[in-house]
Amino acid sequence: MLDLQSLDYAPATAARPLLTDVSLKADIGRPVLVAGASGSGKTSLLEVIAGLSGQLRGSIRWKGRELSKRQRRWLSGMVFQFPERHFLGLTIAQELRLGHRRLDSDQLQTALDTVGLTALRMSDAPERLSGGQQRRLALAVQLLRGAELLLLDEPTAGLDWSVRADVLNLLSNLSKQRVLIVVTHEPQLFHDWGCERYRLRNGCLEPVTTLPGA
Ligand SMILES: Nc1ncnc2c1ncn2[C@@H]1O[C@H](COP(=O)(O)OP(=O)(O)O)[C@@H](O)[C@H]1O
Ligand SMILES: [Mg+2]
Q1: Considering the domain boundaries, does residue 214 fall inside one?
Q2: Residue 212 maps to a domain
Q3: Which string of DSSP letters, residue by residue, matches the chain?
Q4: Per residue in 105-152, pLDDT tens?
Q5: Which CATH number fits the domain that encloses residue 139?
Q6: Is residue 84 part of a domain?
Q7: How many domains does the chain have?
Q8: Considering the domain boundaries, does residue 127 fall inside one?
């Protein structure tokens, strides 16, 4: 489905390459978890896939076809670690309707229910939500867009344990119909999650075959 081959990413502004010879395959029904320390290149990897970065070398294919940056922006639903920096709507309803003015309130509510955001006031500002709720809202926006490739940057950061279990369940459910890639600096929280595991170190990606610490 998604097939990254030998990606090199070395923006002129960086002292060293941010990604080196990165290859990765991801399919529907099998989420991918990329673990790595802070600064290892996790966010850069998602930005490259999502068509948000500068020039790179290597190929990014989807269903066997090489995609342009613009096509990847269309395909990808990026959920940033700090979504509030990217909100455009003045209200939750406006944010959900971005690019989809005709969505009725039932459709908006269904998307919010899917991501576990119930009992919100549609007229509230997105900035009033907690960090975890903001990430859920950003995810709901991508579901309404119909993004076939979901890219989640640190989806568990700052969440308490009970909420984290909900997030893992949600991601498993979403991955049944979409390609899903999660990057995290806390892979221990995902230890019993069914997924393909990779580790990123200084921009180099390798598959993980045994559980960390096992
Ligand atoms: N466009 C850029 N130009 C220069 N340096 C960058 C750029 N983007 C990221 N970096 C640097 O590359 C490294 C990896 O960043 P990032 O992908 O955000 O890592 P992570 O998400 O794993 O913490 C960091 O040292 C960061 O400061
Ligand atoms: Mg990051």
Answers
A1: no
A2: no
A3: -EEEEEEEE--TTSSS-SEEEEEEEEBTTB-EEEE--TTSSHHHHHHHHTT-SS--EEEEEETTEE--HHHHHHHEEEE-SSGGGT---SSHHHHHHTT-TT--HHHHHHHHHHTT--S--TTS-GGGS-HHHHHHHHHHHHHHHT-SEEEEESTTTT--HHHHHHHHHHHHHHHTTSEEEEEES-GGGGTTS-SEEEEEETTEEEE--S-TT-
A4: 899 999 999 999 988 899 999 999 988 899 999 999 999 999 999 999
A5: 3.40.50.300
A6: yes
A7: 1
A8: yes
Q: Residue 180: which of 30, 47, 74 has the closest Cα?
A: 30
pTM as predicted: 0.94
Question: pLDDT per residue over 149-184, tens digit each?
Answer: 999 999 998 887 777 888 899 999 999 999 999 999
Residue to probe by mutation, ligand 1, list 16, 18, 48, 81, most atoms within 8 Å of CB: 18
Q: Whose CA is nearest to atom 25 of ligand 1?
A: 39
| Ligand 1 atom nearest to CA at 54 | 1
User: Which numbered atom of ligand 1 lies nearest the CA of 41?
Assistant: 17
Q: Identify the domain containing residue 151 by its residue range.
A: 2-207
